[in-house]
């Protein structure tokens, strides 16, 4: 009896030790800093998610749950105009916390005088959090001064990338074609840009009232990618040239020339709608809803969304099917895109905050899988249920009542994708995005060093140069595509490359390449 | 004895003391007027001149994070403080921006300035006060439609997928026209929409001026057998010429902003796009796009200062010219 | 006196002018009212239906949903009250304050006249920008109060110039005769000038009133209290929002149930903003009446 007792005691002891050891480094541990203090506290918050219908904290399921769990509530101010944040920074009216996206806003927050660096806060108030964080995430957010002022939401890190079951973002660009018109043409194969051109020509003959190809400026870059232009979503908009050096994506000569010439030709022959180049999301959707568009370039997610919207119209026959691999150019597959996106938004704890300890522990809560899922999916059972491992949303509550996708201060990309794909996985006809995100993955690769290259900050010489470069690029691309003759197009392109040189391209290139090389060296260690 | 006569029998010495005393007496005689004027002036100092210290950042390297006091303590910008101005002049888009702004504004000035005056004259000639009121009320409605809606209307009429105009063109067997993106159409769209939107509103001020004209002038003219056209030419126009000139001078002053309505910005923002950019970008919009949205406050202030100086120069020049030619001016 | 020839000349000329006037008026009427009518159409039409285009003269699918949606926004009734108050109070004080200044500066005998006028002109073109304004209002404790709508808008150079010009055109003899009777400048203003300046004050009240009614940037920049926002601010936010925001602000995420879209919500918002002005204007119109100067000259 005594022996059994002793054995049990030892077992219990061992188990408690093991669980304690495990608890030290787990999100479920009882020792997490945020759990230690859940007294009610209110902080002021500024955010610029203006597209979300929630304008106060505490009226939706998500924020109510967060307050119930942590005791924290917020007094919310939403961005009123483009300079709002800059104004409150310069007049000393910053709230306790700022949650923003957008390069200009982020750039302004990441300043030692404006916000507390997280590394200092974590070390001081929630040291166990360091063990729970992915080092790549930290790398991604670390600035030149060695501090990181936030951890960005929706970062795609190496671990995520290496997972073969995970795909690209559901917002990745693609090309879609009307299946009924394709059937009319005999379902021709569209493998190359030449095929694409021929099909568009045939459609124009058969259906002169239709827009053969709709490409909007903000969403239409897929074609350029087929020609080998790199993705420009990295912070520094950098790509790697043949010599292994970082250059500005829009200084990469060959793919730009080929793409612009091709697009110009399409426009000439009436295959590309000139007006659509200026369309925004709404106008693109309106054009598609009017039933007059044969093919269009846009996000994978939109293919399903708009198919569904079309389906709701009585008597509708229109259905768009997306291409599943890139178009080849001259027999070669040139699409090779670099993923280096550092993330979307950042949550900043400003120097105006009197209790930064409380907010950094809130971040710990937010970063846990539970907090992440809560703020992105809603309350389980109330707003969604798990089906086949994916969160499928209920129709019962409006977005405003659910409160998901706004208070997601430490959202991960994986969970966002899961939600977006949930509907797709459960409905094949409107679920093309489910396979598209993996179809295109082979044509992308991940370069963490490139992701860490910083854009030039505003109000610096490099920043001024970059602003000029950006403006030159948008006007030149438009002008080239809409040129009246081939000669004019070539002329515009030549002028563009000359202009960006004289605007200071070399300075900017040096700026990003120096960073890139230094990061590579640091990473190699 | 009235105060007027008191003044005239006042001190006649030409000494400094004498002059001061006379000045003080004059001041006292017009003290109410001075009170009104000084109140206005003090107000201007507080609400307009005091904030002008913000202009100094045009010559400095100011970042928002420097805070409010950073406006005073920020370092002087490179190139002797003229870095931001030079950046603007060196910008490849500089000539495009200035050309568009000047051309558009001049077009608006010459074409849309006379229209409200003519319209006011026409309304004045209308008989039947009910019809008159209806037409007048309807004419200024476009002023209240925000440019966003106006653009929505323009889009519905002129777009190439289902726009009214293009549908009609197609029915007539003609090619569709890219009104909204074609560079060659922007100026026309901008000027015509500006006239349409503001004509009725600005005619109000001329109508008010016309109502102030002494009716006896008309009566005596008609007795002499003058025709309606004659009346307009000889009585109406001369009597409101003062108002016309003043509004003209003010319009010239706000040339950069796009005339009295300051429509350059809204039009560039709404009707401008990447395809017609080389024709649609104007100075006010450029300040917003390249300066404010990127938080380059110093840069935006510098260009704004540049715009202000041009406007001020235009105002005083046209005022001077008007003084010499017609006798009408601000002073 | 009038020869028969000029009678005939006048007759034909009269009719010609009337014809021209009639044609111009008709064109203006159609050109200005149609787009407005079109906006009203859209506002009473179902949003998703409107996207298909083709609505020209009458709503195709009538609905009050758009207006219900706009009025259903929490702050709209309060915003309406705020806008009305600010317009009434702001206009009265602004026209009075500016008017007195303009009256003073319209007198050639005013000492320092050129100085005052130059000062007024300069401020039309130079501004320190948003941040100094922000700091000033903060120091004056105007931020986030109703007074930030009134106090910074007491004086408008443009209005002052127009008024100055008008006052100058009033015959000096009017004032002279009053002052000979012993009136001081104050009395001259209230008893002589004011009554005959009705068209001017009506115009200035209209311009100032409409400005106040439509002003939204001060509400956006300087006021965070939602109960103090102006109607125009609320409407502009609505008008500028993208379609997805417009949908989700009001409705379920289920696409099928939403009938309002940005395309129909925006005109509804615009109509709500314009209707009060259109109602008020005819009352001001009666001041634009001819012949107020007859019989006021003292001989």
Helix-strand layout with pairing:
The complex is a heterotrimer of chains A (525), B (331) and C (299).
Chain A: H1 2-24, H2 33-36, E1 41-47, H3 61-70, E2 72-78, H4 84-90, E3 97-101, H5 103-109, H6 118-125, H7 128-132, H8 135-141, H9 158-162, E4 173-178, H10 179-184, H11 193-206, E5 211-214, H12 222-226, E6 238-240, E7 246-248, H13 253-268, H14 281-289, E8 293-299, H15 300-311, E9 320-322, E10 337-339, E11 345-349, H16 356-367, H17 369-377, E12 384-387, E13 390-393, H18 399-402, H19 413-425, H20 432-439, E14 444-446, H21 448-451, H22 461-481, H23 486-502, H24 505-524
Parallel strand pairs in A: 1-2, 1-3, 5-8, 10-14
Antiparallel strand pairs in A: 3-11, 4-8, 4-9, 6-7, 12-13
Chain B: H1 3-8, H2 16-29, H3 31-49, H4 70-73, H5 83-90, H6 94-112, H7 114-125, H8 129-144, H9 147-158, H10 164-171, H11 186-211, H12 215-223, H13 228-253, H14 263-271, H15 277-280, H16 283-292, H17 297-326
Chain C: H1 4-43, H2 47-50, H3 65-72, H4 76-105, H5 113-125, H6 130-139, H7 147-150, H8 157-169, H9 172-180, H10 185-196, H11 198-214, H12 217-222, H13 231-240, H14 243-250, H15 262-285
The share of residues in extended strands of chain A comes to: 5-15%
What's the β-strand tally of chain B? 0
The most extensive interface, with participating residues per chain, is: B-C, 99 and 105 residues
Largest sheet of chain A: 4 strands, mixed
Largest sheet of chain B: none
Shape of chain A: globular
Q: What percentage of residues of chain A falls in helices of 4 or more residues?
A: 40-55%
Order of helices and strands of chain B: HHHHHHHHHHHHHHHHH
Overall outline of chain B: flat
Tally of DSSP helical segments of chain A: 24
Unreliable stretches of chain B, pLDDT < 50, 5 or more residues? Answer: none
Oligomeric status of the shown chains? heterotrimer
CATH architecture of the largest domain in chain A: 3-Layer(aba) Sandwich
List unreliable stretches of 5+ residues of chain A. Answer: none
Structure description:
The complex is a heterotrimer of chains A (525), B (331) and C (299). The model of chain A has no long low-confidence stretch (mean pLDDT 89). In chain A, the strands form five sheets. A four-stranded mixed β-sheet of chain A has the order 2-1-3-11, with helices on both faces. In chain A, strands 5-8-4-9 form a four-stranded mixed β-sheet. With 525 residues, chain A is of the alpha/beta class. Chain A has 24 helices and 14 strands. Chain A has helices at residues 2-24, 33-36, 61-70, 84-90, 103-109, 118-125, 128-132, 135-141, 158-162, 179-184, 193-206, 222-226, 253-268, 281-289, 300-311, 356-367, 369-377, 399-402, 413-425, 432-439, 448-451, 461-481, 486-502, 505-524; strands at 41-47, 72-78, 97-101, 173-178, 211-214, 238-240, 246-248, 293-299, 320-322, 337-339, 345-349, 384-387, 390-393, 444-446. Chain A folds into two domains: 36-156 and 343-411, Periplasmic binding protein-like II (D-Maltodextrin-Binding Protein, domain 2), CATH 3.40.190; 173-339 and 445-524, D-Maltodextrin-Binding Protein, domain 2, CATH 3.40.190.10. In chain A, α6 (118-125) crosses α16 (356-367), α13 (253-268) runs antiparallel to α23 and α15 (300-311) runs antiparallel to α20 (432-439). Chain B starts with a helix and ends in a 5-residue tail after the last helix. Chain B is an all-alpha fold. Chain B has two domains: 3-53, no CATH class; 91-326, MetI-like fold, CATH 1.10.3720. Chain B has 17 helices and no strands. In chain B, 70% of the residues lie in helices and 0% in strands. In chain B, α8 (129-144) packs across α11, α11 packs across α13 (228-253) and α16 runs antiparallel to α17. Chain B has helices at 3-8, 16-29, 31-49, 70-73, 83-90, 94-112, 114-125, 129-144, 147-158, 164-171, 186-211, 215-223, 228-253, 263-271, 277-280, 283-292, 297-326. Chain C has one domain: MetI-like fold, CATH 1.10.3720.10. Chain C has helices at 4-43, 47-50, 65-72, 76-105, 113-125, 130-139, 147-150, 157-169, 172-180, 185-196, 198-214, 217-222, 231-240, 243-250, 262-285. In chain C, α1 packs antiparallel against α15 (262-285), α4 (76-105) runs antiparallel to α11 (198-214) and α13 (231-240) runs antiparallel to α15.
